[in-house]
Write a structure and sequence with these properties.
There is one protein chain. By secondary structure, this protein is an alpha+beta fold. It has a domain at 49-174: Roll (Nuclear Transport Factor 2, Chain: A). The chain has 5 helices and 7 strands, in the order H-H-H-E-E-H-E-E-E-E-E-H. Strands 1, 2, 3, 4, 5, 6 and 7 form a 7-stranded mixed sheet that branches. A hairpin with a 5-residue loop joins strand 3 (107-121) and strand 4. Helix 2 packs antiparallel against helix 3 and helix 3 (72-78) packs antiparallel against helix 4.
Length: 196
């Protein structure tokens, strides 16, 4: 009799749990992810990453042509509202500040071109990171701004198409050096016998 009295509340509790659905933390739906699946909620993989790279390359060409003509109106369409630029002097500009700089002549280009683009599309197909080389001639804040620079750009695919959301440029001080060249030179120096 005691077993029956204890078993009755347990059976009632099991029936209530079954009627309420799956226990918390358990997902038995047909679309459930495995327990070790990441929580990344990006869109599905792009159907054609090469097409996305071609779109970004086209935007880079449009950007270069617009900057070479100091065309702030075109750049307004290229930049996302949240755009941020780290300039060649280390200063930071928002989209509004960058456009004002182009319109006022604070940033003025006579030539601007990209080369060596390395375009990486995110697995979700809605983000891109570009590392490229730029050659430019012009002025920035009244000082000559010309030479070769390495630029990193971040793009995001929006409802209105791809937009640049971030960029940063660094002067290339020795265009012949590669990241591993310095390490190789350091290794050679440390392996050379010391002069006595």
């Amino acid at each position: 009799m005691r077993i029956f009295i204890l078993a009755l509340p347990i059976a009632t509790l099991c029936a209530l749990l079954a009627a309420c659905g799956d226990p918390a933390g358990v997902n038995t739906s047909a679309n459930a992810k495995p327990a070790n699946a990441g929580s990344n909620t990006t869109a599905s993989a792009p159907s054609d990453p090469a097409a996305a790279q071609a779109e970004i390359k086209k935007l880079m060409d449009t950007t270069a042509a617009a900057l070479a003509k100091n065309d702030a109106d075109t750049m307004d369409k290229m930049y996302a509202d949240s755009y941020t630029l780290v300039n060649i002097d280390g200063s930071v500009q928002t989209k509004a500040q960058r456009l004002a700089s182009l319109r006022s002549g604070e940033a003025k280009y006579s030539s601007f071109s990209f080369s060596e683009p390395d375009i990486k599309i995110s697995p979700g197909g809605d983000q891109a990171v570009v590392i490229a080389k730029i050659a430019m001639k012009g002025t920035f804040k009244g000082k000559p701004a010309e030479g070769d620079f390495r630029v990193t750009q971040v793009y995001s695919k929006t409802k209105d198409g791809w937009r640049q959301i971030n960029a940063q440029a660094t002067a290339i001080t020795d265009g012949t050096a590669k990241p591993d060249d310095k390490k190789d030179d350091d290794d050679k120096k440390s392996a050379a016998p010391a002069n006595k």
